Amino acid sequence: MSIKAEKIKCNAEEDLFDKLNVKIEEIQQDYVLVSKQKMAQLTLEINQLKDGLAKVVNKDVIQSTFKQHTKQLECRSIAAEKQKLQRELELFNSRHESTLVELEKERQQQSKDMSDAMVEQSLFWTKFGSNVCTLLWKASNNDESVKAMLNGDSGLKFLEVASYAYESYFTALRLHKFAKAKELSAEHDFIFMLTGFLTNMTASSFGREFLMKATDKDSLLDTASQLLVDLSLKDLEWAKLRNLLLKIFYNLSLNERGLLFVSEQQNLLKALSQSLSDDQCMENKLQSIRILHSILLEPGMTNAIQQVLHLIPREKLSSHLQYSSGEVKEALQELEMEYRVHGRES
């Protein structure tokens, strides 16, 4: 072999050796050289770990699955119990509302029954009082019968009841905005008959004195005078009641104490002035003039006289006289004479 051939062979072997070294280095970088014994032991340990891990994992999974299933059952049980309680609550609420509705209906019915019973009782006693006062009115046509009725405590108690009746009636009228008499027929009949008896009572000298000494006279007569002011002068349904009230005050004016009381009633003097101007009932006008005449005839009633002259100036009186006739005109002429007397005195 020639030298050149040997040289080429050596170069080839060197290249192969270099490549082998490079390959070995690459293998050493990626792999580790382990003995067969160590490898067998490592493989055995890995297999043992796999078997143990599977057992542990399977046990935990089973336990977790069981617990999850148990919790699901508990949740379902709780949900079912909740639904049951919800249905029971809805049923209870429904029964509760039904009970409340029934109780409210029962309460309203009881209230209505009680109200109806009270109205019926009130109507009964009002009619009863009306009938009693009718009998008293008929029986009190003379001084002796009035004296017999009023003697003792019963007379004072009667005036107390009468005062309360007037106040209640006046309150009822205001609530009804002074409706017509027929709309309060039972109460109106009672008050009318009561006023009729009081008219007869004050027509008696004993009755006048008895009333003026009574402690309840102020309340009774104040309400009566206020009624005269507020009752419509143009509604003839009130004319009869106004007539009886005016007669009471005229009768009282025949008594010294009564005249003093009448002269001090501002409401009454106002009502008398209104009656002269607007009252549609001639009898009521006549009664009003008579009361005014009684005041003017008493020289000691200076303040009351001045009040009358102020409420009904002479020019106004002359106008009333011009358009009047019959008894009213005669009474106005007598009143005008008293005006002249007081005009000379002033």
- Contiguous low-pLDDT stretches (5 residues minimum) are none
Q: What is the strand tally?
A: 0
Helix content: over 70%
Fraction of residues in β-strands: under 5%
Give a short account of the largest sheet: none
Spatial shape: rod-shaped
Mean pLDDT: 84
Can you walk me through this structure?
By secondary structure, this protein is mainly alpha-helical. The chain has a domain at 260-345. It is built from 14 helices and no strands. It has helices at residues 3-30, 36-139, 143-150, 153-175, 185-203, 205-213, 217-230, 239-252, 256-263, 266-278, 282-297, 302-311, 314-322, 326-345. The protein starts with a helix and ends with a helix. Keywords: Coiled coil. Residues 10-120 form a coiled coil.
Q: What's the quick description here?
A:
The protein is built from 14 helices and no strands. By secondary structure, it is mainly α.
Write the topology of this structure.
Layout: H1 3-30, H2 36-139, H3 143-150, H4 153-175, H5 185-203, H6 205-213, H7 217-230, H8 239-252, H9 256-263, H10 266-278, H11 282-297, H12 302-311, H13 314-322, H14 326-345
Helix pairs in contact: 2-5, 3-6, 4-5, 4-7, 5-6, 5-8, 7-10, 8-11, 10-11, 11-14, 13-14
Features:
single chain, 346 residues, mainly alpha, 14 helices, 85% helix, coiled coil
